[in-house]
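debug: dumping io for the single-chain case to check the tokenizer round-trip. Nothing else runs in this session.
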Amino acid sequence: MDAVVSVISEVAPDILVIQGFDYDLTGAALGAFADLLRENGVNYPHLFAGRPNTGMATGLDMDGDRRRGDPRDAQGYGRFSGQGGMAVLSRFPVLEDQVQDYSAMLWRDFPDALLPETPAGPFPSEEAQAVQRLSTTAHWVVPVNVPGTGRLDLLTFHASPPVFDGPEDRNGRRNHDEIRFWKLYLDGVFGPVPPGDFVLLGDTNQDPNSGSGLKEAIRGLLNDPRLQDPEPSSDGSAAITGDPYDTADWDDPVPGNLRVDYVLPSANLQVTDTGVWWPDPGTEAGQTAALASRHKLVWTDISR
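debug: decoded output
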């Protein structure tokens, strides 16, 4: 925890979306975390966290191993309800009454869903697919009121890793559709699109060029003219692999270091600076980054 606080205090973003943060109904953990950050010089008076799909029990065999009640039998992997959720911490007011939460959407109701199939039929079963949600963690649109600028919509999610499955490619297909959700959202398929400025950010668990998974959705997102990819880089990634654009440090050679974490501002915004907080691993700051997380903090400065 000390390393995580150190990284956030060093970068001190105005708005922070944090992944892998356990959810509780009263927000006690998030409030305590915000207090800890305040003690270390970063004040986030405005917090938001909705209930994620992680750990949400289904009572069914969702991964086809003929057992029930395991972490992979939840709507999203989790040993308990809310494990590894998401949270928004902001210096500016969060318009909670205008949050859009798409996390309850059933995967089978998603347009042209890549539902897993086997020669025997739907995987793992018709019963499971009837209740399976698209979102592993969540899909949120969280409006923030930025003083002097106005409304900024945060389009955020944390997709399933496209591994830990079998030839049916359940997780790979789900990862693809979780990413493709945002293209359809911006097309207006699910209702009104953001009225102005927005930023799409989160952990896609997908690299456009390397690693496992279906690449069409992430490549389409990065090439969408409604978004811009500032291509943040870091000295740490460059020092380890020679590729400065990776954001996650996994075991080598498989899966290896990959670019899976993104901050993609809408095309109308001006990007003034960007980067990945991943100092050279030979430095004290680099060692702190390694202790904080395999995923490194991606930041982007924007203006109108």
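debug: round-trip ok. The chain has one domain: 2-303.
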